[in-house]
Amino acid sequence: MRRARPHAWLIHLLASAAFTFGSDMFLRNGLAQTQTANEPQPEIKVPPGRRQLFLDDAGIARQQRLRSVFHPPEKRGAVLRSPDPAKTVQTRTAPVWHEARQRWLLYVITIDENLWESADGLNWQPAEKPNQRIDMAVIDPRDPDPARRFKAPLLNSGFAVSADGVHWSKLDLPVISSSDEGNFTFNPDDGLFIHTVKRGGPHGRSVALATSRDFSEWNDLGLVFHADDRDHELGKQHIAARLADVTLEPMRYNHPEAYKVDVYNMGVFWYEGVYLGTPAMFHSTGKVPNYPNTDGFHLVELTLSRDLKSWQRLGDRQAFIGPSRIGSGAYDLTQIISPSAPVVRDDELWFYYTGLKYRSTFDYEGTYPNGRTILVPGRDRDIGAVCLAVLRRDGFVSLEAGDDAGVLTTRRFQ
Question: Do 35 and 125 have their domain in common?
Fold first, then answer.
């Protein structure tokens, strides 16, 4: 059998053309640069059928006169609202497809109806209530034991498995500790379960990550992602811009001494040979009186890793999902909690995420924790929903030429 020869691709981008690969790793701040490999580099082995996105420089040998453009997904609004407006509905997981039922299943939190189902991913109805609280779950089609088809982490409580997604059995496994937040995905190509949790770090709230291949033995990698000094510099700019924008939901508290950026939650998913992360960067704007927390807002960004330990920021730290405008009818005015993994629907990626209209919803009377909360008068009580944003498949970043043709030369692919 004749061995296939490796190929390097030379791609010319004409003026005003766009080529969707992308990364901000070569053309920062939108400025055209040239990058050239200094020495021969080994071939890149790509499994048949895998798309090469060039989200970082791993596949690039040389490029000229190109500008990177970061593309946020298009918002489609709320797809799942709370049946009780006094309780916000949120999610920390992605819908899973139940082949036997021909339905999408989605686990949600903070309301009594914990499990919802849909035929199309847009119109959702309550399903049978699980026998215990399940915040996030995946389907594992590879497990030979049908009683372990569904798998779920129980935040700060362990893990559980189920045959149908409703009747769960808790496993006798060590806990992956979390402050109070988590996210959960499954890489079916590699059989890897990925559980992210919130822990304290050098800049406040940070992301720790644990993995498992058999859902029994877990490898806790510890902290893998946190804010840095650059986030705090940009955070001050983001806060100033938001406070000056009358079309965005105002903050109740503005105390510059409390300005800070940390990571509230982060989904991590396997996509075309790399891991992408969606950190929800929380921007603290002011301390809530008599209460141990702050007002603020989230911006969801995009990160990349090849080993789940070292993460690169994409899009020059632009918001992948930012706030909607007042009067738009949207829920994601202030708090935006990270999507887990996108659902691939034909030529689109569907990102399900939590959107909340407000952050500070009450005043605290008395001394914490012995006081009481008083809801802010006159505010809408229907404040949270599961929202949907849609991106063209592979369309995270494009490379665009200016008046002169741009050139992109890849490394050799095998």
Answer: no
Which is it for strands 343-345 and 335-337: parallel, antiparallel or unpaired?
unpaired
Q: What is the domain extent for residue 41?
A: 10-71+397-410
In 288-383, where do the E strands start and end? 294-300, 303-305, 312-313, 335-337, 343-345, 348-356, 362-365, 372-375
DSSP for 93-150?
A: S--EEETTTTEEEEE-BSSS--EEEESSSSS-EE-PPPSS--S--EE-TT-S-GGGSE
Which alpha helices (H) appear in 188-279, and where do they start and end?
Answer: 229-244
My answer on whether 78 and 56 are in the same domain is no
In a domain, 1, yes or no: no
- Paired with 391 in beta bridges are 349
For residue 137, the tally of other CB atoms under 10 A from its CB is: 25
Q: Which two tokens stand for residue 408?
A: 């992109």
Q: Is residue 5 part of a domain?
A: no
C-alpha 237 chain-centroid distance:
22
Other beta carbons less than 10 A from residue 409's beta carbon: 16
Is there a single domain that holds both residue 26 and residue 42? yes
Number of domains comprising the chain: 2
Q: How many CB atoms lie within 10 A of CB 49?
A: 6
H/E stretch holding 384 reads strand 384-392
Please indicate, yes or no, whether residues 67 and 123 belong to a single structural domain of this protein: no
Mapped onto helix, strand or coil, the DSSP state of residue 229 is helix
Are 17 and 132 in a shared domain? no
For residue 222, what is the enclosing H or E element? strand 219-225
Residues 24, 160 within the same domain: no
Instruction: Quick: pLDDT tens for 191-239.
Output: 999 999 999 999 999 999 999 999 999 999 999 999 999 999 999 999 9
Whether 305 is in a domain gets the answer: yes
Q: Provide the pLDDT for residue 265.
A: 98
Contact 329, 76 (CB under 8 A): no
List, for residues 82-127, the tens digit of each pLDDT value: 999 889 999 999 999 999 999 999 999 999 999 999 999 999 999 9
Supply the CATH number for residue 254's domain: 2.115.10
Domain identity same for 29 and 147: no
Q: Which residues of the chain have pLDDT under 50?
A: 1-37
**Backbone region of residue 169 per phi and psi (left: phi > 0; alpha: psi in -120 to 50; beta: other values):** beta
Residues 66 and 79 in one domain: no
